[in-house]
Amino acid sequence: MLDINVEFTKGVLFIRLEGILDDSNICNIQDTITKILKEGGIRYLVFNVHNLKINCEENLFEKCEQIIKLNDGKMLICGMENNTNFNNYKCVNDELTALRVLSVC
User: Fold this and answer.
1) Domains of the chain: which residue ranges?
2) What class, spelled out in words, does domain 2-101 have in CATH?
């Protein structure tokens, strides 16, 4: 089971993922998020993965980062707490730090 909380504030789309991201739900989640990013022209995206466990090979974050770059924006991941799944991404400790890094406070 995967719960998603989406919030758009101060020009930043926050996506909070809680539960297990696996092969049974990644395609649906990925389609939904990429549609929001493309249609909304979102430039700033923060994934909060504090309560997320990843059990799949496909990389949701890579595709989202590609779309954000096409929109001339930035993507950050917070709440990873030493999770090696996110070594290739810009990571911060929490959402407030993400707002500061994106300079939208």
Assistant:
1) 2-101
2) alpha beta
